[in-house]
Amino acid sequence: MLADRQAARQREIQGAQVQEAVRDTYTWVTEYTKTFNEHWQEEGRPSPYEPFPRYDYLAVLFDVLDAESERIIWIEKSRDMMVSWACVAYLTLKAMTTPECGVLFQTQKETKAVQLVVYAKCLYDRQPSFLRDAFPLTKPTKDQPALSLNFAHGGYVLGIPGGADQIRSYHPWGYLNDESSFQPEAGECYNEALSAVKGKIIFNSSAGPGWYADARRDIIRNGED
User: Fold this and answer.
1) Structural domain boundaries, residue 166
2) What does the alpha-carbon distance between residue 199 and residue 72 come to, in Å, rounded to a whole number?
3) What is the pLDDT of residues 180-197, one digit of tens each?
4) Strands 102-106, 49-50: pairing kind
5) How far does the chain reach from its first CA to its final CA, in angstroms?
6) Is 33 part of any domain?
7) Which of 91, 86, 88, 100 minimizes the C-alpha distance to 150?
8) pTM of this prediction?
9) How many domains is the chain built from?
């Protein structure tokens, strides 16, 4: 009986630890997982793996991403702000903690989509073991397909290349269109996402001219413009 009570108490403590670790994305990425930096030696960093920095703008960004009232989010960014990492982290955490929850990462080229899935796999692998145990995968990340990360409870992360036709086969909860200014069919992808995606829709890119910049500012152009 004592052993049973101790085991139950241990499960209770572990459950509380899990809930604290995944209570919001900012907590998870700054305290319970790590990114990787390919330029860590040139920058004099102690390791290629580090938690997200505690920058004020990242805290605000994660508040916006986590807000249930915001379904469609537009982000203008510049390089080295970790915005792609942040969007991947938010959607990965959602897929990891929610059974049967799928998320899509769409980029101009498949190689970039693979890179975003690598981000997700890194965030999963760099967690403490109690979180990996709480949210197991179907198989280890090294054995997962290059374009996906699949959880035992049915949630998944999937990378797809650009093109509106790429979205039509899926009905995910969340969707990220990364570097939208460089995707010729970004507008058509947006229209498809409105129909296919049941939860969060995120578009991010630099502020170059084109559909994304116009859509971000609610500018409507006719076909002759």
Assistant:
1) 55-216
2) 9
3) 988 889 899 999 999 999
4) unpaired
5) 77
6) no
7) 100
8) 0.89
9) 1
